[in-house]
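Prompt: I keep going back and forth on a fold encoding question. Comparing notes only helps if you start from a blank page. Show me how you would write down a chain together with its backbone fold. Please set it down just below, with no commentary around it:
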Amino acid sequence: MKTPRFKAPTVVAIFLVFAVEWTPRQASSMQVTDATGVIAARCMSCHDRDTREGGIDLTPLLQKRSASEGENTKLWIKVERMVSRGEMPPRDEGPLTPREKEAITQSFHESFVLRQGKPHIGPTPLRRLTRYELQNTLEDVLSITLKSPYRDTITGRIDLSKIESTVPSDIPGPSGFDNDAHRMQSLNPPLKEIADAVHYALATFNNDAAAIQTLLGRVDLPSNATESEAKQLISKFLLSAYRGNQQRGQHYANVFYDLYHQHLRNSKNTRESLLHVFEMILVSPHFLYRFEESKNLDTPYPVTGLELATRLSYFLWSTTPDAELLRLARDGSLLRDDVLKSQVTRMLNSPKRLSLSERFAGQWLGFDDLLSNREYFMDERWNRESYDEALFFFDELIKSDRSFLEMVQSDWIYKRSSVLNAQQHGYVPIDPESVKNVYADVLSSRQSTSQDSRARYDPPVLVKTKNDREGGLITSAAIMRLTASKTRTSPIRRGVWILSTVIGRALEPPPNVPSLDEAREALAVKRNPSVAELIKQHVSRSECISCHKEIDPLGLGLENFAPNGGWRTHYPDQAPVLSAGVMPNGKTFSTPREMKVLLLETYKEEIANNFVEKMLAYALGRKVEPFDRVSLEPIVRKVKEDGYKIDTVIEQIVLSRQFRYRQDR
């Protein structure tokens, strides 16, 4: 039976039934007499309004109360980071004395980390479902399948589901992820497209007797339901759609009963009217948004069991809580540490944990662009294989509870089957039985059954690395493609990617830097200048040197990888590829593996801090702020003690105050 449609004004009307409130974060103020004295004495010769070396003017920080929600806050964060890393003042100016350094770091801690001398977690933002979460949630609420099925053949295309084709993709926010609540608050939800997606999902549900049975306890929707039957069906649907919140479902039940009766007067068919109400429920704010009870407090307080279940489920699974989570939430046991830990273990054993690799790692490292951004499309096989190499690698870190530092360098990788099938020597497959799995292998079923060797698609295979080139994710074909143009590599682009994405250093290019083409012209007197010579000319300005001493060796160490990740020893013009370099600590390297070993040696603590910070931001749905350090620093210490295990990061985030508490202002 064809399901009835509703008009856009109806969607808006049902949306307005619910009030969406948000209290903006209040600005803090900072008493910085000692800190401003240090800045005035040690920094202003280079960073006043006239000089602005590196484009930085610290004049606003000389005010007694200079902290706010604007540029001053960003400036203080930048100053504190550079001081704590020992990057300011520059070496030729002499380092800060311990007392000077403490004046800045202590003032920053008291004003930006603490509030009135006490730890806090900052206002908790309202979160809306992303497109990815919407599709997953509709699948689980309605017990249907909406995603494009895994395909073990090559057809020449990258499949999109109906939901992905209908609802626009979400724009990443300051956190770097598309589940960023602050970015979503600044955008109007695409209600028409969401309504179309919901209509499609509900039509699929209406034609699936097993799905109806699972959700409503019967094989079809009655066309002549009694008043009592209709109310019961609407109540069941509300409970599932509103993530087990019975109180909320009961509160809004009368709204939907009234909508049902209004529609029934025209339709004269209870099935059509029930479907209409189900659609209204699935476009209502309490389905599309993750509302939590507000106590209007400016101090942190624990969330309820149901709220914690929802936070946990969307962090680890990107979908609504299942029956076990809801049961433990209702009886309050989920609030206990031991139960919470056991649920993390159970959830990481589920195939749904793949969302961590698809959405967290895929967005952070960028390899999700291989399937969604046409700029990086080469052909279906290459893109799928490159994506899967990265996806399987990251999931292996979770499955085997390995150190996330292995993303930089490891003695194993997942290698595309097309290379192994071509019998290229040097790769030694690892017997899956020899791998000590902590959690279930949720990707083992992805094996091709096609007999057509040309169309057959096999997933990547776990192998020992064959040489001094490969290992980890940062030298994978996916990352090499994402950090290059279609025809040319850029050591600067690759170096910046490692420094910003992996190490976590935000970089801002100084003004009026000459382009590489201009550098090439400047070196026209020499035939075939090397890439290293071009970069040296490109960054010849003094304000460029401090950053490029770290950027350049990282990028040059990857020059042997072509734009598609293939190994090369010569450029297309037959000029030799030179990839040796010198790290900032003076140590040299001549192979990618040597560069990555030095990368870990030099930046391990920053890489670890950045990884935890990124995953915390993903879990919280917002950018990590200075006040989050009260939780972030103990997590990093615990993770370091446990050998940088990725599952320790996940568990410690879930147990953190930031994850289990909320604050209203």
